[in-house]
Amino acid sequence: MNKKQLTVIMAAVVSMGGMSSHASAAGFQIAEHSGAGLGRAFAGEAAIADNASALARNPASISMLDGTNISTGVSYIDPDIQIEFSKGQFVDAFEDEAGPPAFVPTFYLSHSLNDKVTLGFGSYADFGLSSEYSDEVNKEFGLIAGDTSVTVINLNSSLAYELNDHLVLGASASLLLAQAELNRYSSIAELATGGETDLFASMEGTGIGFGYKLGMLYKLNDNHRWGLAYTGASDIDMEGDFSGVQLNTDNAVLDYVRNVDGELTLNLPSIIEFSGYHQLTNQFAVHYSWVHIGWSSFEEILATSKGNECSTKGESDRVCLQKPEEWKNSNRYALGATYQFNENWTVRSGIAYDESPTDKHVTASIPDSDRIWYSAGLSYQHGPHALDFGLTYLEGETGEVFEEEGFFFKTTKCSAMIYAIQYSYTFK
Predict the structure, then answer these.
(1) What pTM was computed for the model?
(2) Which fold has domain 3-427?
(3) What residue segments make up the domains of the chain, in order of their start?
(4) Each residue of 232-244: b (16+ CB within 10 Å) or e?
């Protein structure tokens, strides 16, 4: 193997993205903020306030909640992703469970201080992914498969202020807690370590970041309103341990470093969401959303060492891992409807189209794609108690093909089921 080949492989060992056990929206964004919202494919989220979970999408919308509200729930994401791997004309390995299932819990609280001011707090996940491949796949394709996990927890404090009967402004500040782990495998590592390990690259780290959200809600009257929210881009500086193969470009010798203090910056995108809600009759309402995600900020994954442990080109070079991503901005379009049978029972449904930001940069952990959401939900209200159920079937595109120095993969199935339950209580 020459220096050029190994350099290309080094650039391909790290990848993020996709519809995994955590991420159900495009890229590695998590949309499961409420059970009611899931039932309508999150159509109208910036303009609807079923419960305190509204603050996750638009802090201004919690102004529609009276008294003190608590809401807690959990979503269960069950992906079904099947991938074929090959080095040539024939399939060499097959993975039928590339994305493991996962639970996504949430908790929210809102409190009306007076007729003008409402406060809120939320704990939920905004971003995440998880992919796992079998030993059979990793033995031959561990450089582009391996194991990957990323989780970003949002601790959100929100405020809504009602300027007048028509306009409400909102803002929130977030503490972002991130954790990531990545492992890639190759027989090249066995050469570099004399057979001790096949772990080609491994990094595990944590980090803390800060974010913010601005929102507004315009109410034409009791039946028609629009919401607009903006989430600022955030950079989370992560620290952790790195171990893996390093190529000394001066003499083409393979080095292996262990437990190096590494640094990595996780770039999270800005988000713009516009929603509308229209009560057409006493029982029937329609709602819609457009969401624009600024994934173009996710240009590369770059891990460096604090010292010179990963230096292969001189003391000024501390690069442990580097992989261009070059994602593009993406959009999400959703349309939903709600029908209230009586004061106790409500049904809802929705459909959404979610664009992938990966464009031509599709990777095996996990292959992202455009996807369609088919959603339905049911709510039961009794006095101060509310129970929401939601389910969604996600259908992604198949047939993506990736090539990197003779490695190929294609998805033969890319779908997921999402189930959610949420309980809310109002103190008045």
Answers:
(1) 0.87
(2) Porin (2.40.160)
(3) 3-427
(4) eebebebebebbb
